[in-house]
């Protein structure tokens, strides 16, 4: 079965609780090069490592969606905001300790810019 027939993966970048939750839900995979589709961030993780993981997930052709905890996306906001591809789609999600803030979500800000208030009347 080819990747096209099998579909694309969801990648996750987040704290341990967030990533483990998705792994328990069956999201975890290794590609042929044995690279996982998840990246755990803790207090010792360098911003450059997060940035590199995000960029690698963006380049992989087997990934369709990248879920990133919003507080971690804030750490690499300049990279997330400069990403403009449709696939993989980047979605910012809340984590246990940090609630979701729609004002910080770059995708939502871009989507709002596509519509005027007249479109919703």
UniProtKB/TrEMBL annotation:
Pfam families given in the database record: ATP-synt_F (PF01990)
Keywords, sorted A to Z: Hydrogen ion transport, Ion transport, Transport
Bilayer-crossing regions: none
Top-level taxon of the source organism: Eukaryota
Known partners and oligomeric status: V-ATPase is a heteromultimeric enzyme made up of two complexes: the ATP-hydrolytic V1 complex and the proton translocation V0 complex.
Chain's role: Subunit of the V1 complex of vacuolar(H+)-ATPase (V-ATPase), a multisubunit enzyme composed of a peripheral complex (V1) that hydrolyzes ATP and a membrane integral complex (V0) that translocates protons. V-ATPase is responsible for acidifying and maintaining the pH of intracellular compartments.
Protein's name according to its UniProt entry: V-type proton ATPase subunit F
Species of origin: Hypsibius exemplaris (Freshwater tardigrade)
């Amino acid at each position: 079965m080819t990747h096209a027939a099998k579909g694309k993966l969801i990648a996750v970048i987040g704290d341990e609780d967030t990533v483990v939750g998705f792994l328990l839900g069956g999201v975890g995979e290794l590609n042929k090069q044995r690279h996982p589709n998840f990246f755990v961030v803790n207090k010792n993780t360098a911003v450059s490592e997060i940035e590199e993981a995000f960029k690698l997930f963006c380049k992989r052709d087997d990934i369709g969606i990248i879920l990133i905890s919003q507080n971690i996306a804030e750490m690499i906001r300049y990279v997330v905001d400069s990403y403009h591809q449709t696939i993989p789609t980047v979605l910012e999600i809340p984590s246990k300790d940090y609630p979701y803030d729609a004002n910080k979500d770059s995708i939502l800000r871009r989507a709002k810019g596509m519509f005027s208030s007249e479109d919703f009347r």
